[in-house]
Amino acid sequence: MPEFRKLDSEFGGDTMVGMESQKTILFVDDEETILEIASEHFENMGYRVLTAKNGREAVNLFESADYIIDCCFTDINMPEMDGLEFAEYLRNYDNSIPVVIMTGYPSLDNTLHTLKNGVVDFLVKPVNLEQMTICLQRVLRERELFIKNLLLNKELESKRRLEQLNRELVLKVEEMRVLNRIMTELMSLNTGSEVLNHIVEMATLITPAGCSVFYAVNESFAAPFELSRAVRSPEKSETRHTANDLPCEISGPALSTLINEIASDQAPMLIIENSTHDLPDNIHSLMGIPLKIREKVFGVLIAATQVGGQSFSEKDLYYMTFMVQQAAYLVENHALYENIYENLLSTLSALVKTVEARDAYTKEHSSRVKDTAIMIARAYGCSKEEVEVLDFAGRLHDIGKIGIRDDILLKPGRLTEEEYEKIKEHPLIGESIIGQLGLWDREKKIVRHHHERYDGTGYPDGLHGLEIPLLSRILSVADAYDAMMSDRAYRKEMSEKEALGIISNGRGGQFDPGIVALFLSLQAEERPGQTYRPQK
User: Fold this and answer.
1) Superfamily of 359-526 according to CATH
2) What is the pLDDT of residues 425-480, one digit of tens each?
3) Which of 38, 78, 100, 368 is the right S-S partner for 54, CB 3.0 to 4.6 Å?
């Protein structure tokens, strides 16, 4: 329980003052008698009392006090700093501290001046203690209400600010979520056409767009050329690539003019309502964002809402502009990569042809092996990506032979053990050539292991069974089949029956039994009564 003490007051009553809420009063007067009487009286009532002989001493007290002063009584006429100057100081220091003026010479000018300085009351000397007490109690009640009101206002302002910050944070989080979704989904795409298809779909997913179209823009086109279109399904709010049952048709001469205008300005355009533009009547709101590659507009993404639908906002335009900019980078990167890829592949293929030109018996061998391997891979159920890897590895599987001397590679007779060891180096040489480019990690692995044997006696690493990559196992069957069906420097081509017999007998030894079984079944299905053989 809080501790209280009982004090006698001049009013004949008992006053209970909570010790934990003791108030501090400052009396400023150059008459020591007034200071002594006031101090004794208010200390007996339970107040903490401070005194000063003039305004200067009072200022020093304020600047050095360890506790809050709740009320100040001050005379006007004092040496060094009078009561009016002190009241002005307090108003600037803390305008929540009430000031009561005590003077023996009141005047209208003094009264007006003191009221301007935030003085709350004006007592005329001689002041009796009862009058001072009543004034103090009233002033402290008013100050308490004033402080509570200030705190409440600050609390309300803080709450409003907190709510505003929270709203801003929610919007920022949502913005980051949308931008992250845009980046994540774009980065998963592999070709420029996939990127263009994706951005028209996204336009109908993250904005109110009923439909969106990407138009290619070029001086050689008579009009903007449509490359991709997506439509929001009214029933399921999903997009689909179709030109049927459009909720809003994006076409016409006026739109072509608008697209050319956007391409010419190279800046996004937002039409919130179709009232000042000569667009189709069923279009309510429209956005157009140019896709630039190397500062030249390649095309324009157009998104529209139909009459009765929502209008696009600045935020929608921001999202779409960000997405199109990222898409432009990806389209350019994909184009550069594909160009580099094709150039490198052409260079490596030329090296393979150089190898095959050295040996007239193996001309087009790599191409035929690639075709046979892809046929097996597709029947096996390999993915599109795996088929693409095999396409590359099949063409280049023998590129390492460029590092084998002609006297060994083209030797018409049986190879010595030393010469055979040299021949066995060609998968490693091929892997090294492909690996230097830093692009095809899976492909070089397939090339390295295409001479491994299922029983573990192959080269270069002696891998066994399923340790050998699947595509290497497929390539091994296709390579052996074509080798047996071709003239070589040391022998004539075999018959199909003989070649297939050797392949069949090699299951579990040289070859994967499952791959062999699949290959033999494909041969039987390709031409009933005959065997499949790629064209030479």
Assistant:
1) Hypothetical protein af1432 (1.10.3210.10)
2) 889 988 887 776 655 778 889 999 999 999 999 999 999 999 999 999 999 999 99
3) 78
